[in-house]
């Protein structure tokens, strides 16, 4: 039979796929009449409806032609190659990856822009994703994610349902590329009270996560060849897009207090500085006030912009709160970037920028050209969530839970790893770094394997360095673990280290 079912996915998709392939491989000839749907359905043991759906889909795609009264025929001229993600995306069948017709022409490598060439050259191997692989280990010290079970999802879904049900035509149309006025207003209030940010709603541009904000900074402020300072080690969410835009990366060392501002001042002038002052990523230092002021002074003297990534500034467990750099900046050199990914969840894809006045319009234009604006219903829900006091309540509650998890981690490291491992960077945020002086960084993967053998997930810091450090360092995220599991996990890390002779 020229059509065969492969058992993958819904029946109508199986029939569509197989029939398309039969046409492309010539198992049915151009112009040939196909069996009646009733006949083929009987032969395949499926309903006639299934066949009707498949014939209709392939007629829409141009592989088949229906002639009233005469039946359905294979088209004599076949359509061009299907789009990369399957014609289903266009026609609503949802069927992934439909192959295009075989072509005898040699395929030429596409001509890529210099941006794309640089992006490919610098990209990490394999799939580009912000999700750490889920290995299914029992004691997973994943980092970079909120504690999902702590999320007030019921409240969120209630607010979402209300906004969706009541959406007016105006709400369903395109909205302001800078973001909905409601969210910008709510964020201006929240950021002033929680992060010491000085701004009006007009200075805020809503982005799809802080990653889009970083990309917009590259578009608006960076030309190929511009030197841009990054922390060493640094958040690769900065370095990959910067390199793709042709920036020359200038790594500046960090210590237990974050960016070494003296080293920055001693280096050649840069166009901009990308920094994570509230919780240096990945090593966890909190930039002290003197360094903040020195950085701002340097920016004012040299005209460099400062990109402040305030990604988990809300989770602070020690010391007096330090206002954001933006809140201390009298000279309009700081661009603050924040995200709902840590406060709520990454799938929201909502971030924000607080911009100097003179940069608002260029950023609004770049944002409009990138995507005409972020999804507005979710923005309205976030605005309701903030104005209803739910965000403050959620942060208060999760700070208490995260403080307990953090304490468990500190205690467990003292108990199980005394003298063998040093925990740094836990004054803020949701992760710490375990430094193992007795294990050179060349053996770091051995530690990860030994931990995995004991059902424990730890994550390398080395990926964030431009020059490898001497000793092994691993990231320990504690947001997703209960305190008892934190303790057991660290006890197992201790066994893993012992198995490596540490
Ligand atoms: C340093 C840092 N900034 C920002 C983010 C959040 O990025 P986004 O807002 O694009 O989800 C992350 C996520 O892991 C991060 O580690």
The small-molecule ligands in this entry are: pyridoxal-5'-phosphate
CATH 4th-level superfamily of the largest domain? Type I PLP-dependent aspartate aminotransferase-like (Major domain)
Beta percentage is 5-15%
User: What's the CATH first level of the largest domain?
Assistant: Alpha Beta
CATH architecture identity of the largest domain: 3-Layer(aba) Sandwich
How would you describe the overall organization of this protein?
The longest helix has 28 residues, at 390-417. Strands 4-11-10-9-8-5-6-7 form an 8-stranded mixed sheet, sandwiched between helices. The protein has a 4-stranded antiparallel sheet with strand order 12-13-16-15, covered by helices on one side. Strands 1-2 form a two-stranded antiparallel ribbon. It starts with 10 loop residues before the first helix and ends with a helix. Helix 5 packs antiparallel against helix 10. A hairpin with a 6-residue loop joins strand 12 (422-424) and strand 13. The protein is 43% helix and 15% strand. It has 502 residues and is α/β, with parallel strands linked by helices. It binds pyridoxal-5'-phosphate. The site of pyridoxal-5'-phosphate has 15 residues, from helix 9. Pyridoxal-5'-phosphate binds next to helix 9.
């Amino acid at each position: 039979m020229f059509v065969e079912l492969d058992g993958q996915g819904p029946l109508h998709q199986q029939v569509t796929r197989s029939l398309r392939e039969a046409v492309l491989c010539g198992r049915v000839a151009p112009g040939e009449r196909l069996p009646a749907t009733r006949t083929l359905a009987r032969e395949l043991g499926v309903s006639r409806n299934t066949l009707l759906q498949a014939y209709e889909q392939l007629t829409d795609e141009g592989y088949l032609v229906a002639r009233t009264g005469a039946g359905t025929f294979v088209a004599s001229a076949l359509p061009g190659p299907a789009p990369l993600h399957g014609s289903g995306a266009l026609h609503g069948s949802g069927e992934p990856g439909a192959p295009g017709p075989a072509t005898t022409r040699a395929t030429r490598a596409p001509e890529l822009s210099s941006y794309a060439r640089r992006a490919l050259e610098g990209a990490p191997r394999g799939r580009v994703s912000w999700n750490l692989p889920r290995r299914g280990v029992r004691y997973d010290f994943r980092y970079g994610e909120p504690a999902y079970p702590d999320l007030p999802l019921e409240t969120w879904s209630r607010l979402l349902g209300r906004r969706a049900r009541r959406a007016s035509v105006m709400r369903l149309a395109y909205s302001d590329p800078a973001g909905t006025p409601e969210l910008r207003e709510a964020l201006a209030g929240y950021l002033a009270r929680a992060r010491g940010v000085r701004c009006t709603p007009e200075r805020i541009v809503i982005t799809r996560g802080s990653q889009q904000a970083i990309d917009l900074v590259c578009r608006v402020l960076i030309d190929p060849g511009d030197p841009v300072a990054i922390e060493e080690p640094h958040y690769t969410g900065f370095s990959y897009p910067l390199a793709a835009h042709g920036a020359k990366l200038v790594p500046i060392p960090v210590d237990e207090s974050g960016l070494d501002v003296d080293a920055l001042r001693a280096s050649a002038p840069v166009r901009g500085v990308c920094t994570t002052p509230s919780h240096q990523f990945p090593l966890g230092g909190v930039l002290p006030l003197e360094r903040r002021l020195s950085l701002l002074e340097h920016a004012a003297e040299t005209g460099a912009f400062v990109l402040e990534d305030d990604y988990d500034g809300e989770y602070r467990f020690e010391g007096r709160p330090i206002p954001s750099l933006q809140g201390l900046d009298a000279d309009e050199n700081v661009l603050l970037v924040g995200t709902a990914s840590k406060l709520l969840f990454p799938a929201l894809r909502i971030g924000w920028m607080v911009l100097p006045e003179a940069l608002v319009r260029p950023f609004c234009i770049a944002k409009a050209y990138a995507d005409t604006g972020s999804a507005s219903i979710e923005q309205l829900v976030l605005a309701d969530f903030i104005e209803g006091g739910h965000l403050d309540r959620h942060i208060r509650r999760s700070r208490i839970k995260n403080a307990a998890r953090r304490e468990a981690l500190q205690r467990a490291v003292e108990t199980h790893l005394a003298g063998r491992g040093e925990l740094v960077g836990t004054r803020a945020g949701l992760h710490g770094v375990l430094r193992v002086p007795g294990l050179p960084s060349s053996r770091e993967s051995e530690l990860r394997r030994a931990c995995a053998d004991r059902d424990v997930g730890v994550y390398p810091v080395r990926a964030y360095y431009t020059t490898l450090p001497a000793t092994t360092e691993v990231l320990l995220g504690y947001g997703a673990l209960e305190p008892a599991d934190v303790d057991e996990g660290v006890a197992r890390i201790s066994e893993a280290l012992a198995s490596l002779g540490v």
